[in-house]
Every structure is written in structure tokens, then in C-alpha cells.
């Protein structure tokens, strides 16, 4: 059996989730009649300090719904050039909504370049450019190694956008990791954004689903877009039940994942063949670099051989960006797994 560090999406539901799913009270959610879905949405709104929430099948769909709800065809969406929405969601804003994405630089800490955001904001006074309808941010930031945006950073962005009457959507797939890392309530982290999405199928370990959150009017319009995209589910309480368990039982334990990631980073940092910035680990994502004999970033072929050797030793890692290798800690990974993974990676490097 492999120690799977490719992603926190590989988590399996807990026994409590399986039992809750088996016993879930259900109805037709398209008719708003599934009591378990309704409880999950109400609990999410209460927990996050927003007016309403919408249960959706995936985080990618949640982000797509948000963009299509906020921005009309031909209106621009400002995104970070390292953002998940820009890189890994099949061009949703442009493909589905006809909204061009205006990419601005992402700093290594996950923060958007504010000067670039300010210069990229356009209104309808210039008929040559697409007017800006939305700014998107990401917290925690995947390609930046799980970095966390602070409350102050978020409010810098929202203040700038709101000064131009532009809403802000947060891709908060791992927002609870951010809240745990900063030791603040999620409602504090999200108070200034106009909408956000979080996944229950990553570190929170539910098998399926995400929540899109905002005010009641936003969610009303978002529900129509969900239907348009085929996301209207029927007896969805069977999977929503796992989400209720996730919010009740799985948030605080995210700190264990963060500690395990730090332990892994510290161990890998001792290996001269790897460039690991252990002091920058913020949550449950570690991105490191394989070095060649000249202590330069290894070639694609060398990286792929290394990953194959590590897999042969019983550990699964993934690639991230041009040269990065990603390891993600999650529910089901314990201290002994981290120590075993470190030993396996050392053996793989010794074979080189």
C-alpha cells in the first residue's frame, strides 16, 4: 500500500461519515426538499457569517458558478497568474461565461500584486477594453505551496476592488486550513469578500462536494447557474450528510496535517539533492525542487525518474508547476507515515 501524498483529495470518509450517509434523511434538492442538504447549507452560512450557502458537486463548479453569477459575457475577471482558476479549471470564466481572464502577478506568498490589480481595473468608459466585473483571490494558495493570506491582505484587496464597485470572490478550497494556521474564525477571514467557495472533499475528508457562500441574492442567482451547469442534484442528502460530519468533527484536526507537513519538510531539507524551504511551510502543502549534480533544478526527465523511484519505494508525490514536486499531508497520514516516506525518499535518492 502506498503512502499517498499527491493531494488531500485522496482522503477517505470517516466511519462517522459513512454511518451518517447511510442514515441520511433525503428529499429532492432541486425542489429544495432535501433536509440534510438544507441543514448543511444553513450550518455553513452560520459558521462563515454569510447569509446563505449552496451545495455543489465540486470546487471547480463552485468557482465557475461564482464567476458566471458575478460577471456577464464580455466582462473581465482579474485572477492571479498562479491561481487555480487560471491554471486548472479548464478556462471556465472564458469558456463558459465569455469573460476574459486578466492575469496579474502572484507574489510567492499568494498575494496578488496590488499595483497590477489597480492598473488592470477597467470601467465602461473605454470601449476598447473589457470592463472589470470581478477580482478572484485564493486562500490557501495551491501553487504557492499552501501559503495563507492574512485578514489584512484580504482586506487590502477587497478595499481596492470595492472602491471601484467590483466584488471579490475567494477560491477558498482549503480556507479552513488558512483559518487554523492563523488561529482565527473562518468568518473573520471571509468577512470582506463577496463570495467564496470551500471544499469538503479535501482536508475535511468528505467524499464529494463543495459549498458556495455569499448573500441571499447571490445564492439565488447562483442556484440558477448551478442548474445551467448540470449541478442540480436530487437526493443529495446522502453526500451532504458527510459534509455535516466534516464541519462538526474535521476542522480542528487540520492542525495535525500542518504539523506533519512541517515534519516532512524538515526531514527533506536535510537531503542535499533537494531544495526545500522548510521555514516557509504554512499549512499542509509542501513544494520542493529536485537538484541535479550541479545543484541546479533537475530536468523534466530527471524529475520523472525520481518520482518513479519514489513510487517504487511506496510513496506517491505529484508535480506542481514547471519544476516543483508537491507533497500534501491529510487525514489518514500519521507521524509514522511521514517517517516512512522520508526513509523511502532517501532510498530513492541513493539509487540515483
TrEMBL record:
<dbReference type="GO" id="GO:0008732">
    <property type="term" value="F:L-allo-threonine aldolase activity"/>
</dbReference>
<dbReference type="InterPro" id="IPR015424">
    <property type="entry name" value="PyrdxlP-dep_Trfase"/>
</dbReference>
<dbReference type="InterPro" id="IPR023603">
    <property type="entry name" value="Low_specificity_L-TA-like"/>
</dbReference>
<dbReference type="Pfam" id="PF01212">
    <property type="entry name" value="Beta_elim_lyase"/>
</dbReference>
<feature type="modified residue" description="N6-(pyridoxal phosphate)lysine">
    <location>
        <position position="202"/>
    </location>
</feature>
<dbReference type="InterPro" id="IPR001597">
    <property type="entry name" value="ArAA_b-elim_lyase/Thr_aldolase"/>
</dbReference>
<dbReference type="InterPro" id="IPR015421">
    <property type="entry name" value="PyrdxlP-dep_Trfase_major"/>
</dbReference>
<feature type="domain" description="Aromatic amino acid beta-eliminating lyase/threonine aldolase">
    <location>
        <begin position="4"/>
        <end position="287"/>
    </location>
</feature>
<keyword id="KW-0663">Pyridoxal phosphate</keyword>
<keyword id="KW-0456">Lyase</keyword>
<dbReference type="GO" id="GO:0005829">
    <property type="term" value="C:cytosol"/>
</dbReference>
<comment type="similarity">
    <text>Belongs to the threonine aldolase family.</text>
</comment>
<dbReference type="GO" id="GO:0006545">
    <property type="term" value="P:glycine biosynthetic process"/>
</dbReference>
<protein>
    <submittedName>
        <fullName>Threonine aldolase</fullName>
    </submittedName>
</protein>
<dbReference type="InterPro" id="IPR015422">
    <property type="entry name" value="PyrdxlP-dep_Trfase_small"/>
</dbReference>
<dbReference type="GO" id="GO:0006567">
    <property type="term" value="P:L-threonine catabolic process"/>
</dbReference>
Amino acid at each position: 500500500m502506498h503512502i499517498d501524498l499527491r493531494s488531500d483529495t485522496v482522503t477517505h470518509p470517516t466511519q462517522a461519515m459513512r454511518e451518517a450517509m447511510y442514515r441520511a434523511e433525503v428529499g429532492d434538492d432541486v425542489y429544495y426538499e432535501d433536509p440534510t442538504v438544507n441543514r448543511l447549507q444553513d450550518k455553513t452560512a452560520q459558521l462563515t457569517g454569510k447569509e446563505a450557502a449552496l451545495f455543489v458537486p465540486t470546487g471547480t463548479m463552485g468557482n465557475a458558478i461564482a464567476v458566471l453569477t458575478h460577471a456577464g459575457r464580455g466582462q473581465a475577471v482579474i485572477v492571479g497568474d498562479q491561481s487555480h482558476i487560471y491554471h486548472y479549471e479548464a478556462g471556465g470564466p472564458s469558456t463558459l461565461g465569455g469573460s476574459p481572464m486578466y492575469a496579474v502577478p502572484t507574489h510567492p506568498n499568494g498575494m496578488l500584486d496590488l499595483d497590477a490589480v489597480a492598473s488592470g481595473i477597467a470601467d465602461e468608459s473605454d470601449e476598447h477594453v473589457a470592463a472589470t466585473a470581478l477580482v478572484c483571490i485564493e486562500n490557501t494558495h495551491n501553487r504557492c505551496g499552501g501559503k495563507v493570506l492574512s485578514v489584512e491582505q484580504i482586506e487590502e484587496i477587497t478595499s481596492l476592488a470595492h472602491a471601484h464597485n467590483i466584488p471579490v470572490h475567494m477560491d477558498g478550497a482549503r480556507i479552513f486550513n488558512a483559518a487554523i494556521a492563523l488561529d482565527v474564525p473562518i468568518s473573520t477571514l471571509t468577512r470582506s469578500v463577496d463570495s467564496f467557495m470551500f471544499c469538503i472533499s479535501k482536508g475535511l475528508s468528505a467524499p464529494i462536494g463543495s459549498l458556495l457562500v455569499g448573500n441571499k441574492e447571490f445564492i439565488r442567482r447562483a442556484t440558477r447557474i448551478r442548474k445551467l451547469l448540470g449541478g442540480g442534484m436530487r437526493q443529495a442528502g446522502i453526500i451532504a450528510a458527510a459534509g455535516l460530519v466534516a464541519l462538526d468533527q474535521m476542522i480542528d484536526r487540520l492542525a495535525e496535517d500542518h504539523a506533519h507537513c512541517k515534519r516532512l519538510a524538515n526531514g527533506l531539507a536535510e537531503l542535499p539533492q533537494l531544495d526545500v524551504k522548510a521555514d516557509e511551510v504554512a499549512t499542509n502543502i509542501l513544494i520542493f525542487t529536485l537538484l541535479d549534480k550541479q545543484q541546479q533544478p533537475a530536468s523534466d526527465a530527471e524529475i520523472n525518474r525520481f518520482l518513479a523511484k519514489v513510487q517504487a519505494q511506496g510513496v506517491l508525490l505529484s508535480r506542481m508547476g514547471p519544476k516543483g514536486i508537491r507533497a500534501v499531508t491529510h487525514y489518514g497520514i500519521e507521524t509514522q507515515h511521514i517517517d516512512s516516506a522520508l526513509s523511502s525518499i532517501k532510498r530513492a535518492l541513493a539509487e540515483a
